[in-house]
Design a protein that fits this description.
The protein has one domain: Rubrerythrin, domain 2. The chain has a 4-stranded antiparallel beta sheet with strand order 2-1-4-3, with no helix packed on it. The protein has no helices and 4 strands. By secondary structure, it is mainly beta. The two termini are 20 Å apart.
Length: 51
C-alpha cells in the first residue's frame, strides 16, 4: 500500500480537477489519462493526471 499514491485528474478542455484516484508509481511511471464526464463542460473529455 505504500507504493500507491493519490492523484487528481484534470479536464483537458476546461482544466478543472474533477476526480481523484490512486495509482501505483512503481509499475506505472507515465501519466494516467482517462475519458471521464466533466460537469463543467457537460460532456466526456480526456482527464489527465495533475499534481
Amino acid at each position: 500500500m505504500a507504493n500507491r499514491s493519490i492523484i487528481s485528474l484534470e479536464c483537458s478542455a476546461c482544466h478543472e480537477r474533477n476526480y481523484s484516484t490512486t495509482k501505483n508509481k512503481r509499475t506505472m511511471q507515465e501519466k494516467l489519462a482517462l475519458s471521464k464526464y466533466c460537469k463543467r463542460c457537460r460532456k466526456h473529455t480526456e482527464h489527465k493526471e495533475s499534481k
